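$ ./design --mode recover --in tokens.txt
reading tokens...
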């Protein structure tokens, strides 16, 4: 990858981030457009990148006594089956439909951001 392309991608990431799009969405777009990664795999990679940051956040918040462990446990127990269901539904829908749904989600979020004060 050339330095010019890296600079362009970095600039676009910064621009999208400043407009309210999170790093995960930027990573998904990068993997899909430049990496040629299928939508479901790109979403999985995005979740893997999230795990170390989530672990660090939990550790820091626990150190400051800001974690309600009972509530966190309920969320984890409810979230794990939801993850498996989401993966199963994603595989049923296929890459083309997932890509269209993701694009629609980005469009809805963009319009909402434009119309919000």
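writing sequence...
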């Amino acid at each position: 990858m050339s330095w010019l392309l890296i600079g362009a991608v970095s600039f676009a990431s910064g621009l999208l981030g400043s407009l309210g799009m999170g790093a995960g969405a930027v990573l998904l777009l990068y993997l899909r457009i430049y990496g040629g990664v299928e939508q479901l795999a790109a979403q999985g990679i995005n979740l893997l990148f999230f795990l170390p940051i989530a672990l660090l956040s939990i550790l820091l918040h626990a150190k400051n006594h800001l974690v309600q462990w009972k509530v966190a446990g309920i969320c984890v127990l409810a979230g794990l089956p939801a993850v498996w269901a989401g993966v199963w539904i994603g595989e049923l829908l296929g890459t083309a439909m997932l890509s269209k749904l993701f694009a629609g989600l980005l469009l809805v979020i963009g319009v909402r951001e434009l119309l919000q004060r």
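exit 0
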